[in-house]
Amino acid sequence: MGFLDVLLGRTKPVQPNLDVLFTVPPAADTLQAALGFAPTGVGTVCFKPAEGSASAQSQRDIRELLDLDPALDVSASHDEFGYTWITCRQSTVDLPALMTGLHAINATLADAGFGLTLLCTVIGFRGDSDGQPRHLGLVYLFKRGTFYPFAPTRDQHRDTALEMQVRAELGGELPIEADLQRWFPIWNAPVP
Questions:
Q1: Count of C-beta atoms within a 10 Å radius of residue 161
Q2: Among 22, 11, 20, 24, CA closest to 138
Q3: Which of 28, 20, 37, 27 is nearest to 159 (CA)?
Q4: Which of the two ends of the chain, N or C, has the fewest CB atoms closer than 10 A to its terminal CB?
Q5: Which fold has domain 20-182?
Q6: 99-118 pLDDT, tens digit each
Q7: φ, ψ of residue 46 in degrees (nearest 5)
Q8: For the chain, percent helix, then strand, then coil, each to nearest 5?
Q9: Helix 24-35 to helix 95-109 angle, to the nearest 10 degrees?
Q10: What's the chain's average pLDDT?
C-alpha cells in the first residue's frame, strides 16, 4: 500500500481464501449437533457475468469440470440484478464433495481473471422447529473472506435470532463476518 493510499483512506481488499470452504464440513457437524441443521446437498456460487468469449469459456470449463462428478446436478440461473447463480445439487448428500465442486467453480472463475465478479457462495441447510421446516444458508463472501448465516422465513423475513445462534456456535470454526451490515439478504437465491 502506498503513501497516498494511507492518506486517502484506501485499503487493499482482503484476499479470499478459497480453501476455507473445506472447513464447512466440520462446522456442519457442529451445526447439526448444536442446532439440528443438516446439509441439504445444495450449494451455489453467485457472480456477475462478464461480457465476451473469455467469460463464456470459463462457464463451459466449469460445466465440463463439474460434469466429471455424476453425483452433482449442475444448473445455471440468472436473477433480476444481472447475477448468475451456478447451483450444484446432490441426490445423496456428500458435503465434502459438494464443497470440492463449489471450490472448483470459484477457482476456475478466479483463475480466469473473473475473481472481481464473484459475489458469494451459499451452502444450504435444513432443520425443523416444532414440525415446521427451517432453512439456513451459510454464505461465503468472496471479497471479504468471511461467512455469515442467512435464515430466511416466509414473506421475505429472516430469523435473526437463529442467525445469532449460528454465529455463536460457528465463530470458533469459521471466519464469521463481524460487520452485520454485510449480512445482506439473498431472497431469490436457489439456496437455501
A1: 9
A2: 24
A3: 37
A4: N
A5: Alpha-Beta Plaits (3.30.70)
A6: 999 998 888 888 877 788 89
A7: -115, 130
A8: 40, 30, 35
A9: 140
A10: 86
Q: How many C-beta neighbours within 10 Å does residue 85 have?
A: 21
Place of cell 441426490: 91
d(CA 40, CA 112): 30
Res 126 pLDDT > 70: yes
Give me the pLDDT at residue 11, please. Answer: 59
The overall longest dimension of the chain from CA atoms, in Å, is 59
Give the C-alpha distances (Å, rounded to integers) separating 67 from 63, 158, 183, 189, 191: 6, 34, 32, 22, 20
- Measured CA to CA in angstroms, residue 54 lies from 49, 57, 101, 112, 129 at distances of 10, 5, 21, 8, 46
CB burial string 117-137: b at 16+ within 10 A, e below:
bbbbbbbbbbbeeeeeebbbb
pLDDT confidence of residue 34: 94
